[in-house]
Amino acid sequence: MATDVQYHHINDMEFSGLFDITRGKIIFLKYFLFIKFSNRIYIDIKGVGSVIMPFEDLVKNKLLKMYYEISLMLIENKNMAIERLDNRRYYYDFVYTEKRVWFIDCAYFIEDFATKTTHIEREHYCCYYNINPYDLPNMPVSSRTLIDKFTFTFLGYERLCYFQSKISNYTNLFVDYHASLIEKELDEITAFQEDKINIIKLLVFFEKKGMNCDIFLVIYNKLISIDGNAKYAPYLIDLFDNSELSYAKKKDIAIQIICK
Fold first, then answer.
1. Which of 25, 36, 198, 242 could form a disulfide with 223 if both were Cys (CB 3.0 to 4.6 A apart)?
2. How many structural domains compose the chain?
3. CA pair distance 141, 14, nearest whole angstrom
């Protein structure tokens, strides 16, 4: 982990955010930042402002609720916030008018006017809060007047005619994004399982006449992936050091690898 940030795990708070950047001759930005705590929620929307409202108020607001639900899909650890400890400038500092040091690690949407395409990235940190989350429990709910003003401003900010298609697009992108992540995880699992099978086979081959450590290593490096090599090599040290290992010892090595 980076030394210029501090990770905070706050179990009684849920952090999430939706960030959308549209690139073209002009760059358009929008963000929705949320922190749910107790029966309240802190909301910060670009061009609208921030507010603390009862969570039930958000649930009753169809537009806000949809953005909130999508934001939850874009973050892996809802209970973690990150605090920046240095004063360097970062990629998305231009988004905010004031210095912000609290942020979350979440995916975000990138749209391209030229190609008319949208995709999800996770390359940069871009959802920064203008508040210390530890201050929230001691902060009161915003007045009804302020909440109503916030909601009214949001309705003026949000183009209702595009809302349904926008939400549909976000949802489809999210499904594709997570499908690709699942596919990647399955590929990694498959690779590790293949490594395990190949190592067990090699343990059997090691008993063959003429199979010394040098030949074994040549075959091993051909069959085992780089990640698998880093993971399983420590279990084979005894094998490389002693070609006369007992059957029981080889069986023990095999069991350790299978259980890894």
1. 198
2. 2
3. 17
3-state secondary structure 56-116: HHHHHCHHHHHHHHHHHHCECCCCEEEEECCCCCCCCHHHCCCCCCEEECECEEEEECCCC
Number of other residues whose CB lies within 10 A of the CB of residue 143: 10
Does residue 184 form part of some domain? no
Whole-angstrom distance, CA of residue 164 vs CA of residue 134: 35
Shared-domain flag, residues 82 and 193: no
pLDDT at residue number 156: 73
Is-contact 80 11, C-beta < 8 A?
A: no
CA distance 208 to 46: 69
Q: Each residue of 204-260: pLDDT tens digit?
A: 555 554 455 555 566 666 666 666 666 666 656 655 555 555 555 555 655 555 455
Query: Does residue 47 carry a pLDDT above 80?
Result: yes
Q: Looking at the structure, do residues 47 and 147 belong to the same domain, yes or no?
A: yes
Q: Same structural domain for residues 126 and 251?
A: no
* 102 C-beta neighbours (distance < 10 Å), count: 20
Question: For residue 1, what pLDDT is reported?
Answer: 45
Residues, the chain, total? 260
Q: Are residues 57 and 142 in the same domain?
A: yes
